[in-house]
Design goal:
The protein has 12 helices and 6 strands. The strands form 2 sheets. A 3-stranded parallel beta sheet has the order 1-2-3, with helices on both faces. The radius of gyration is 20 Å and the shape is elongated. The termini are far apart. The relative contact order is 0.10.
Length: 250
């Protein structure tokens, strides 16, 4: 379509995925944006990962103009997107969620109503902060095992069935070998890029600051991914922490 107006004309629903809150607010609410051109009653589904306050601002503005809007950020990465098995964390009214769910089910396997406007973003940034932290810990564990003479496959076979088991290990192993589909086996091509993780960790840090929540390990993970980005690895998969640790040790 040559314009937003042409794209949304006559639609029952509009789905967007944009880089940041400023883009969401612009695309939906500028003079030639979605809201100015959509049919009254259209449901808006924003699948971006943005600041909680931006998502809530957008939802309130949409509601004031007579539209339902949900924030529905995703988890699962490129493979889940290709397979239609993404997880959507949805914030918004019950009515908005009911209208959005059948559309999201065409793209995802798990669709969860997280509560009111912005709560989808809360779930996403808290989840990805946990993921960033656990990936670093997993990389450190594999690196330690290697330096002490235990190969990656043997450590994987043990720890993946023991108390250290986690998603970063069993589904996305940062050490080459144990999980053939992991980015570690294709020179850490993403996947989920370092700079994307960095964006989410910054959103988590900002949200923690505004809420007065203590996230010391989240801050440490943020610093680690900032260094990776500065070192030119921003386009690599976020599991490239493993390679960075091995380089430092060498």
């Amino acid at each position: 379509a040559p314009s937003i107006g042409d794209a949304v004309s006559g639609c029952d629903a509009v789905v967007t995925m944009l880089p940041a809150g400023k883009h969401v607010l612009s695309v939906y609410f500028d003079d030639q944006g979605v809201a100015a051109n959509a049919v009254p009653g259209t449901v808006f589904l924003d699948c971006s990962t943005i600041a909680v306050e931006d998502a809530r601002k957008a939802a309130n503005q949409a509601q004031s103009l007579g539209f339902e809007m949900v924030d529905a950020p995703v988890s699962g990465g490129v493979a889940a997107a290709a397979g239609g098995t993404l997880t959507f964390m949805v914030g918004g009214t019950e009515a908005g969620f009911s209208r959005a769910k059948p559309i999201l089910e065409a793209m995802g396997k798990t669709i969860v109503h997280a509560g009111g406007a912005g709560n989808g973003q809360v779930a996403k940034i808290a989840n990805n902060m946990l993921l960033g932290i656990s990936m670093i810990a997993t990389c450190e564990a594999f690196n330690l095992a290697e330096k002490l003479g235990l190969d990656a496959q043997t450590f994987f076979d043990i720890s993946s069935k023991a108390s250290g088991q986690n998603w970063s290990m069993t589904s996305y192993c940062p050490a080459p070998g144990p999980v053939p589909t992991a980015p570690s086996n294709r020179d850490y091509e993403p996947g989920f890029a370092v700079d994307m993780m960095l964006k989410d960790l910054r959103l988590a840090a900002e949200a923690a600051g505004s809420a007065g929540a203590q996230t010391d390990f989240g801050k440490s993970a943020l610093e680690a991914y900032e260094k990776l980005s500065r070192d030119g690895l921003g386009g690599k998969d976020f599991s490239v922490v493993m390679r960075a640790l091995q380089s430092q040790a060498d």
